[in-house]
Amino acid sequence: MAAAPSSDVLRAPLVVEFPFTRSLGPVQSAFLTGLRERVVLGVRTGGGKVLVPPVEYDPVTAEEITDLVEVAPTGTVTTWAWNPAPRRDQPLRRPFAWVLVRLDGAGTSLLHVLDAPGPDAVRSGMRVRIRWAEERAGAITDIACFEPYEGADTGRQPAPHSGEFGDPVTGIVAPARLDYTYSPGRAQSAYISGLSARRTIGERCPSCQKVYVPPRGACPTCGIATRERVEVGPAGTVTTFCIVNIKAKNLDIEVPYVYAHIALDGAGLALHGRIGGIPYDQVRMGLRVEPVWSEGGRYPDHYRPTGEPDADYDTYKELI
Amino acid sequence: MAPTSPARDVAIVAFAQSDHRRRTDELSEVELLMPVLHQVLDATGLKTSDIGFTCSGSSDYLAGRAFSFTMALDGVGAWPPISESHVEMDGAWALYEAWVKILTGEAETALVYGYGKSSPGEVRDVLTRQLDPYYVAPLWPDSVALAALQAQSLIDAGDTDEPALAAIAARSRDAASVNPHAQVRGSRPQGDYLVRPLRTGDCPPVGDGAAAVILAAGDRARELCARPAWIRGMDHRIEAHALGVRDLTDSPSTRLAAERAGAFERPVDTAELHAPFSSQEVVLRKALRLGDDVSVNPSGGALGANPVMAAGLIRLGEAAARVHRGDSDRALAHATSGPCLQQNLVAVLEGES
Ligand SMILES: [Zn+2]
Predict the structure, then answer these.
(1) A141 to chain B: which residues are within 8 Å by CB?
(2) Rounded Cα distance, A54 and A40, in Å
(3) Nearest residue of A to residue B79 by CA position?
(4) A253-312: per-residue pLDDT in tens?
(5) Are residues A186 and B31, on separate chains, in Cβ contact within 8 Å?
(6) What pLDDT, in 10s, does the model give residues A22-71?
(7) Mind listing the pLDDT tens digit of every residue in chain B (353 residues)?
(8) Ligand 1 is a single-atom ion; what residues have CB below 5 A from it?
(9) Chain B residues with CB-CB distance to A119 below 8 A
């Protein structure tokens, strides 16, 4: 049974999405272009075995293979598994069977799905055929699914094929999306919760006494847990800085501006943040600054000078 | 081909694992990991600065965090600088790298760890991203679906049936009932089909966990442990990624790794098999020629707890712990990675009498 998450630990949805763009070699290009044209191609290995889907190198001998052949759009299920609850992005929205299908003329099996009314309608050895997607773009999903088929294997031999088509597909874009519920753990939850009250919370190492901010729950030097919470700041000292001259995409800040390391009072290491309220060419090491919060902001928008005298170098040199 | 004997004796001298749980929202990855690191260090009396080499296994895809292994290093104490490496695989493969490092004389001791938090995401979806991106991943076949295809192959071949699979699940969870770290313990119903022919009971629990071991060479191992678990051989092998090319009822890569690790030279008394699905135990028993007299997964195995990226390392750790305790004289440990037992690692561990 799942333990109830403790109430002070934060959780938030996190979506990771990426369109993987991949180029195809000659064999994969021929296969996927073929699917677009409703032609299924395989490769014949030096040993005479026909691999469908095709690969560029023999999985046994590692020899390069280029001998393309056409196989039938009909085949035999070699094994199957009934999926009663399709997951997002799987090929069919209704329950279906996962199948490995040996297409007529092929010596290996292709993984895909079978549209069938229920598990009782599926068995290893059953005959199936490809149902093509109405819109095809040169991807494995151009095969919408397999469907039951009454005809026997005619034993037709795979026919040699040039692999040449008009407008060949040379790449694929494979979009992926993974959904998470992110929890930053105890230490970082306390830090983030503190920021929403405009307080900066660190954790002190019981061994070396250094105060880590933001805290991650461990002292990376001593390799032990940090537990004692310490409020640091709000003011701090610029320990080092740089002048940014290139505008970042989607960032509404005039260039040039200054990005700095800031050692908040009481912290054992510097945070980073933008410096405002002072011309960029007057920012200096030792400058005393304080956070400026925007309305409703979850973290300081930037830091501005406090007007205090600059800090003495010896007071922050360990933190650079 | 005869197995090559290692150039020096290397042993697992300490093992620790977390209590594996469905979710650990209150713990960051380093917070999950740190207690097991401290346990193995305390068991040997070693400090981080005494360790010659550190190696870890994990995957950013599980928790959706980039470069998460670098953050986990905070739990090791990586300052002053240490010699460190990471594999984007189960920690068992990190142990292999550490073993090689010691065999080549570049280290006397090594700290190895693996961890995974599966609770933030959907591990069935996450694992689809390790598949062939051209022909397979666009179909999103999840880990249970692929294991179910393998299970049906075994049933068609007459190698098992659903009652036999249920018996494997029941035996594993009975064994897990005496393992305080396991996530699922004791008898439970086999449940409905998740992907037929696999029922809930045939599938591993989803959860978070971590494990760590310490390796040491020769006399150093004897100083650190009363009865070191000597690694007599270790090997790992991989098969073609395309499922349609492989015979899913067999695991030639496991057999070859076992042969190269010396597993067939003499019988073993214990086997810790990394079989996340009940059907995979059928394949592994056959490939490893395990008789009924061998104690298989006395820990409960991956059906009791399957923290992804640590579960294989835990098999090595559990086997070693039995040697440490004197419950085993010669144990086999196995770890797997990839769909349908694509990659397999086998180690043989022995205690001196
Ligand atoms: Zn410290």
Answers:
(1) 138-139
(2) 10
(3) A221
(4) 889 999 999 999 999 999 999 999 999 999 999 999 999 998 888 889 999 999 999 999
(5) yes
(6) 999 999 999 999 999 999 999 999 999 999 999 999 988 999 999 999 99
(7) 555 556 789 999 999 999 999 999 999 899 999 999 999 999 999 999 999 999 999 999 998 888 888 888 888 988 889 999 999 999 999 999 999 999 999 999 999 999 999 999 999 999 999 999 999 999 999 999 999 999 999 999 999 999 999 999 999 999 999 999 999 999 899 999 999 999 999 999 999 999 999 999 999 999 999 999 999 999 999 999 899 999 999 999 999 999 999 999 999 999 999 999 999 999 999 999 999 999 999 999 999 999 999 999 999 999 999 999 999 999 999 999 999 999 999 999 999 97
(8) A 205, 207-208, 219, 221-222
(9) 196
B22 inside 8 A of chain A by CB:
yes
Q: For chain A, say whether B238 makes contact (Cβ under 8 Å).
A: no
Q: Is A48 on the interface with B (CB under 8 A)?
A: no
Alpha carbon separation from B349 to A37, A252, B200, B259, B345 (Å, rounded):
56, 61, 33, 14, 13
Cis peptide before B197 (omega within 30 of 0): yes
Is A95 in the B-facing interface, judged by CB distances under 8 Å? Answer: no
Residue type at A97?
A
ipTM: 0.94
Least Cα separation, residue A226 to chain B (angstroms): 10
B62 vs A16: CA distance, rounded Å:
11
Q: Does B196 touch chain A (CB under 8 A)?
A: yes
Calculate how far, in angstroms, residue A207's C-alpha sits from the geometric centre of ligand 1: 5
| CA-based nearest distance B131→chain A, Å | 12
* Distance (Å) from CA B49 to ligand 1 centroid: 14
Asked if residues B273 and B287 have their Cβ atoms less than 8 Å apart, the reply is no
Cβ contact B140–A100 (<8 Å): no
Q: Is A78 on the interface with B (CB under 8 A)?
A: yes
Report the pLDDT value the prediction gives residue B93, as an integer from 0 to 100. 98
The answer to whether B79 faces chain A, any CB pair under 8 Å, is yes
Across the A/B interface, how many CB contacts are shorter than 8 Å? 193
A214 preceded by cis ω (within 30°)?
A: yes
Write the residue in B135, B138, B196 that is nearest to A119 by C-beta: B196
CB spacing of A109 vs B136 below 8 angstroms: no
> What is the pTM for the complete model shown?
0.94
Q: Helix/strand/coil (H, E, C) string of chain A?
A: CCCCCCCCCCCEEEEEEEEEEEECCHHHHHHHHHHHCCCEEEEECCCCCEECCCCCECCCCCCECCCEEEECCEEEEEEEEEECCCCCCCCCCCCEEEEEEEECCCCCCEEEEECCCCHHHCCCCCEEEEEECCCCCCCHHHEEEEEECCCCCCCCCCEECCCCCCCCCCEEEEEEEEEEEECCHHHHHHHHHHHHCCCEEEEECCCCCCEECCCCCEECCCCEECCEEEEECCCEEEEEEEEECCCCCCCCCCCCEEEEEEEECCCCCCEEEEECCCCHHHCCCCCEEEEECCCCCCCCCEEEECCCCCCCHHHHHHHC
